[in-house]
Records
---
Amino acid sequence: MTHAFHFDASLYAAYLRSYAERLGVRRIEGKIVETRLRGEDGFVEAVTLDNGRTIEGDLFIDCSGFRGLLIEQDLETGYEDWTHWLPCDRALAVPSTYDGQPDPFTRSTAHGSGWQWRIPLQHRMGNGLVYSSAHISDDDAAQLLLDNLEGEQLADPRALSFTTGRRLLAWNKNVVALGLASGFVEPLESTSIHLIQAGIARLLALFPDKRFSPIERDEYNQQIQNLFEDVRDFVILHYWANRRTDSDFWKSCAAMELPDSLQRKIDLWRSKARIFRENAELFARTSWVAVMLGQGILPESYDPIADALDEQKVAAALEQMRLANLQAAERLPSHGEFLAEILGHRRRSEPELPEFIF
Ligand SMILES: Cc1cc2nc3c(=O)[nH]c(=O)nc-3n(C[C@H](O)[C@H](O)[C@H](O)COP(=O)(O)OP(=O)(O)OC[C@H]3O[C@@H](n4cnc5c(N)ncnc54)[C@H](O)[C@@H]3O)c2cc1C
């Protein structure tokens, strides 16, 4: 069964840091204030910290967030803005108390000018509102979020702004941008950390030597572009196909012109319920089908090969699948029981640094 994770992002970052340090990664704390570029080709040679220390390198990985310290400010790589397809550009995040049984899923609720997330963790609820600043003021957005909290508010809302889109080249010269420095698809499908991981995996698979061949670089950039665009199309589908008509925001989403790649997917589905997983895209056929059907996009016909199948055999196969799923679900503990078991196990053994916990 496929699954995803709910993490406390700050704890996860601290965990990854200590994990990496234990494996021998050396961490140098400091703010980068200057970059030295090589005269002949503009490759990054060194960065200087605010304490005056200079750090030289062959390959630089830019994880500096939206601003893209090296990839954009120094190398001026360029950014493709997708706001016309995904108009939300701000978010507010706030934790709240929580004492029920945790759901094993994120709940996303549409509002007039965006949507709200609700993510149960072991010890608190993560909440947030993602919205379009062209359609609702920051104050009204904060009020909307706080009015819709289930538990008690634990902190002031934290504000974030972003421009959905992607860096034109995730790898430029000897700089590889990862994370928000490489682009951002708004968090409706919680895809950023997956894209970071996918970027790391591809960088390892195409790791350069000091000559930095354009062959590996171009392949990396193409693969990352495909990943970003596939995620983008899947998220756009939610906005475009949503049938709300009660606000200017939703009306403008329904009226948008879709990217060709998404239009082609919708046409194939509408024609005969066909979906193909392309490239190495994150979302499987079942995810696309769930959103298409869930948002009321119905196929006009079906694959003619289906007429060659024996209906009784198909019905029997479906029944077998239903029973297998039912039996598996009955055997499994609830999400709350599962978490309690893991936590109990960890408390009993108390390792200094827990091995990766689900
Ligand atoms: C509203 C919102 C919701 C999200 N929800 C999800 C989700 O559900 N699932 C998911 O997978 N992802 C989600 N993400 C994305 C996720 O938060 C990011 O992918 C993750 O934080 C990684 O970010 P990053 O390291 O690229 O950038 P950041 O977390 O922004 O880190 C950048 C770092 O660079 C440092 N820096 C900047 N300039 C300098 C300098 N000059 N010198 C030294 N250091 C510098 C900063 O101090 C900072 O520590 C969400 C993001 C947003 C905005």
---
Amino acid sequence: MSRDLGAKLGKAVSALAFGVMQFGGKADAPASRAMYDQARAAGITLFDAAYIYTDGAAETLLGEFSQSERDNLVLISKCGYAPYQGRAALEAQVRESLRRLRVDQVDILYLHRYPGDDLLDEALECMRDLYRAGAFALLGVSNFAAWQVMKAQARAADLGAPPIEVLQPMYNLVKRQAEVELLPMALAEGIAVHSYSPLGGGLLTGKYASGGAGRLTEDDRYAARYGPTWMHEAAVALATVAKEVGQPPEALAVAWAATHPGISAPIISASRPGQMAAALAATEVEMTPQLYARLSALSPTPAPATDRLEEA
Ligand SMILES: NC(=O)c1ccc[n+]([C@@H]2O[C@H](COP(=O)([O-])OP(=O)(O)OC[C@H]3O[C@@H](n4cnc5c(N)ncnc54)[C@H](OP(=O)(O)O)[C@@H]3O)[C@@H](O)[C@H]2O)c1
């Protein structure tokens, strides 16, 4: 299977995706519009939304902004966040996402979380029927373990559902679990990967080292996810390297994630228009093998799946 989503969709596919999770939340409508325009001016065509973001405001704003150029964009949404609520809920969510986005079809539809072994077939049958009804072009899964992707892929084939063509895992300099199984699997199986949280929810901007505020001081889930001291030390070390090479740490962090051969496009995001430029500068970073190795050394390389450390 090819990982070329552009060829599959017949559309231009940018090297970065933009996530609208903050639209209608921390970013009001004018701020969201400004960020959408910045993303478009930088050539971004991939826009990542979800049914659950900001109670629907994110999809509604994206639908409004993208209406006049919808055919040039890859509009992406997700259904079925945990806990899984059954087939009727999935169908209702997708119907509502399409209405908010003002489209008959999204380009990529993700199952947002693994529905559970017992409910996997039901969820895939629902995806099959939504696909046949034209609700989406390509199927993706997000936050799945590698074995769950392969299990779902096999069940999808048996049930006549479309294949899984894109994954959306978390991946950044301090969250590297995807390197162990997911990214090698994606390369081997020809599955594209749009990775989320390239800045570790803002940790890798370096702002928390100087007492800054943001998602990590406001959201307990992110505070816990990025709580370990070594992660904060890695963010400080990243800022030092960034200063040395004359790039913002955000640009280095996004470029680092994008450099892994398994990654098709990291999904950048911001809560204010003024934050955008630093991550967008990722496309200007000259990621030499030396710089990539230096950045990779800022955090522990995860152990191989076989646990044969001496052979890694
Ligand atoms: N599939 C999933 O389960 C899942 C989960 C999460 C995200 N996503 C997708 O991935 C996208 C990106 O994820 P993410 O938002 O976690 O990405 P991220 O790049 O790790 O974090 C972005 C956040 O960092 C902070 N930030 C960014 N630039 C900054 C700057 N220059 N200075 C200071 N702070 C800055 C902002 O938060 P504050 O200002 O609040 O600190 C911003 O919202 C989302 O929009 C969504 O589409 C998917």
